[in-house]
Amino acid sequence: MTVMAPNGTARTFDYRAGDVGYVPRAFGHYIQNTGNQTVWALEMFKSDRFEDVSLNQWMALTPHQIVQQNLNVGPELMNALRKEKQFIVSYPGYTYSPRTSR
Hints:
The strands form two sheets. The chain has a three-stranded antiparallel beta sheet with strand order 2-1-3, with no helix packed on it. It is an alpha+beta fold. It is 21% helix and 13% strand.
């Protein structure tokens, strides 16, 4: 998980089964599964109001020309963005297929 502070700094943490991570209020975060098994995550909030903004989804739904001009990126990035929200993204190069028998 990478946690981004409002001042532009970021730190990446590697977690294993049973670990607990913390994201301070108003900090962005990005969770990526770097393994080859399903990740289960539980989010808890101290508030009765939850708000979520996915940067990937937001950029995918913004007209491509605006994103490309403002971020100086090409169509490769735009084609990689997803309009559907992804809670945890897969690590490129890994796939996971659940076992059908034990």
